[in-house]
Amino acid sequence: MMTNKLFKNKEPLFHVVKRTDIPSWKAWLFRGGAILFGILIICLLLLIMKGANPFVVFGELFNGCFGSSRRTWLTFRQTALLLTVGLALIPAFKMKFWNLGANGQILIGALVSIMCMFYMGKAGVNDAVIIIVMIPLSILAGAIWAVIPAIFKAYFDTNESLFTLMMNYIAEGLVAVFLSAAVTSGSGTLDIQQAGNLPRLGNDHLLTIIVSIVLLVVMFIYLKYHKHGYELEVVGESQNTAKYVGINVKKVVIRTLILSGAICGLVGLLLAGAIDHTISTTTANNMGFTAIMVAWLAKFNPFLMVGTSFIITFLGRGMSQVQTRFDITNDSISDIAIGLVYFAIIAVEFFVSYKVVFRKKAPHIEVKEQNNLVTETKEDK
Amino acid sequence: MIFFNTILPSAISIATIFLFGCVGEIIMEKSGHLNLGIPGVMCFGTLGGCVGVSIFMSSYSSDPLSAPWFGLVLISLLFSALFSLIAGLIYAFLTVTLKCNQNVTGLALTTFGGGVVDLFMSTIDKSYFSYASKIIRYHLPFADSLGAFGKIFFGHGILVYLGIVIALITAFILKKTRVGLSLRSIGENPATADAQGINVTKYKYGAILIGSIIAGFGGLFYVMDYVGGSWENSGTIQAFGWLALALVIFTVWRPSLAIIGSIIFGLFFILPSYVSGISFVTMKVLKILPYVITVIVLIITSIVGKKGVQPPSSLGQSYFREER
Q: What ipTM did this prediction achieve?
């Protein structure tokens, strides 16, 4: 009876197997297609809702990013910022430590620099002194914000994604507390701070870009050639293996998160000291979350991340220009576009790393003996 | 007395938003899926509910207040469920079938949901929302005559009670039934559950879809009941979505505790505006408290290490049968 039942059950229509053999150019073609797909859907949406010409939409995309020298600079600066946050996340992610708290780490770094600028500036301290004090302090603040969850992860296995997520909102809350204490007028926004601004290199954007390039090279070397980079990769692959070969897992987790948080703190410093010169609860501009995408899309490869952070920035900035052009007052189109592109790329990732194998046609399966459950196919012979 | 007359009733009201989101997320997390797309799902639920209300109210344009209560509630819930289902399907398809990274998918869903609700809310007819809200908020007439007692227990719209009932039913199913046991075992170790003959994919889809529908009701409740039919932008709903995620930890993955937990969160949320004589700064400090307490709960539960207060072991990991 039992055997009869087994033979009646068909092999499933298809099953999924892992694949490792896809050429990388093909994989990138898939991903490029996914991005194009997302943009085309938006074109379609705009065509239906606003009667927009798709070519105009594409034109505005480029116009928003490269329409003027200022826009071009802003695009590059934004790419650089996103890249830096991504660089901060890579070591943690390679270790399979899901740091969702980059927003908070950036924000706390920015908060500390702004507090230095605000209070020391008020006291009339020399600009150079303020800068010397605020650089280490804000980097330290970012590191502390990341290391708290790391310590608990290392010693008590506290869920790090939930912990770091909560730290974002605590940081946001602290910024709100600072703003309510520092801003006496009813507006709730802090004036542009004049004291303690980081030095301008040519224009407002170059400093950020240079910092990101330096970090890119340093991070690449750190991950690829330094012992630490190797250790954190082993911890990410298997904690047991790491323990077996004598790696102190706790130390690696804490050390890596200090690095991760410190870079986020540095981004906060740049935002507060070189770019915005003020702070709000949205100063981090959700870059902590966007950078997760950027890092993941680039397969945690620092150099590929230059490309992915550019694409995401391009979409975001381009789509906001499209919105302006078609009189949409909120960020809806850019959010939908980015969301769609994410979905498309995420879905494509499946086809890059897995293969769907369909059931072979029934005649190929020969059932020889009732007690032999193994079915043979013609290929096997 | 002001506490029982005003503060507690409105805390219960706001708690319902957290409660829906939290119970929905608990169901998903029990199946091993950390859905960071909850804020996005709530946006979808909001949009669905509003579309339903908009369609339903358009046939009562001459006298909006005469729209039947039952029909309106039913239609708005149905539409809300339908839209949340779409969001849930996207998430489930990507994370279960395509085995994609859950954090990345969730964040994408949040971004996408925010965009969709912002775009389409500007195109639908919102003129009868305040009337619809009055009808949906309808509560038993004798509640007001019973003083504070009546206000706390009877003075809410139907959706508040729906939230509590859903939480209780979920708690019962998770704890006492075979389905709940299977679901929990999948969250703990999908490979073992699979070996037992439980259809992991089916359960995961079920949990994510049902969880999404419940979470989506939170968005519907926010617009149609809590704020009385007005609409600002997706940011307001998403803030509640993140708090709902925090609440899941705070209530250590138990839907029954979520009822009390959400009221505590609700109190934290509104208390600062009722306490007289506190400064603006203190008010802002109080706003951080829910998150700080959540972190403390997370730390304590992990230090204590007791079974039953931990996150599901396979939370956040995709399950691929051929991998070990």
A: 0.83
